[in-house]
Amino acid sequence: MNILFMTLIDFWSLDDRGIYTDLMREFAKNGHKVYIMSPIERRNKKSTTVIKHDNYQILKIKIGNIQKTNIIEKGISTLTLEKAYVSAIKKYFANVKFDLVLYSTPPITLLKAVNYVKRRDNAKCYLLLKDIFPQNAVDLGMLKTSGLSGILYRYFRKKEKKLYAISDHIGCMSEANVEFVLRNNPEICQDKVEVCPNSIEPYVIDKVDTEIRQIRSKYQIPDGKIIFIYGGNLGRPQGIDFIVECLRSNKRRDEAFFIIVGSGTEYHRLEKFLVQEDISNALLIPQLPKNDYEMLALSCDVGLLFLDYRFTIPNFPSRLLSYMNASLPVLAATDKSTDVGKVIEKGQFGLWCESNNVEQFNEKLKQLFNPELRLLMGKNARKYLEEHYTSKKTFDIIMSHFL
Predict the structure, then answer these.
(1) Is 397 within the bounds of a domain?
(2) How confident is the model over 297-320, as pLDDT tens digits?
(3) What value, to the nearest 5°, has the Cα angle with vertex 98 and ends 94 and 104?
(4) For labeling, which of 73, 162, 173, 190 is most exposed (least CB within 10 Å)?
């Protein structure tokens, strides 16, 4: 089959690792011809270009700035995405007849591009639902359902419903996501919504003691401590207020050391807090190269997940997979709407608490001081990953509709 994948993830090769590159690589390995549309933001000062490989192509489309920018620029750039993607399809893929279109949220504003290919080629459309917008923006106070802001909300909500309507299948990250979508969109046929989880191609990372010592020395990570690591985005969805309170309440805890790796709108706020509060058992590191981050994670003891307690939508962070791949137990502090905590505890590879209860967080933290418990949970994490969250399983779920 000819597969078209539309994404806002910026990558140049399927040799990269991630939930989308691993899945596309799975399609390519199974004999399908893969075409990928991936953006280049204006800040990179590069033009639209096509990268051709033996069994896949990546069309890099020049767009406005979307990631790590102010809300006005992000909004304008998001609204112009459809036109840019449709124009690129007409110009570069005019002679390719697609059998299947895959696309993920965010954003919902690729609607016209998806619909264009669906009508032109009579293609099947599969939505990988990773983000439920605009409700997530409402949860965080970035949009309101009434007043002037309500006009924008209703515009995006209409787009969201249209995207669901034109999708032949909707793959959700978890059971809670399936239930949320069907409950809030009763017009959707239940049969077209299913669990199609975040997944990766698990790989073995050699835990070489000399390399671990080198990475610890490079970032001045102390020995003899239990190292908790958070890696990922640092923005409103992560509930930075709660992270700050957790770090503050543990600033005198000698047993623990916290590493936060990432970037985002709240990075500098965290940086300022650590300096002002003189937090000596925490380290903030900007986004790292993939290899450095993987080795750093291997040198740690526990992976951390954070989600803002106000969410009513059931997020399921893909960051979880990197911890599981590294055989790390997980401590998740989230809202009550997501079922990620239930999955972690059911699989016995971590602990969960609500992300507005620092005392509860600290109780779970202390439980993970037990080395035998950490070792057991780490092994369970890797096992659960290999049984439930591989890109091969996701590929099989999608392809089951075309057998």
Answers:
(1) no
(2) 888 999 999 999 999 999 999 999
(3) 105
(4) 190
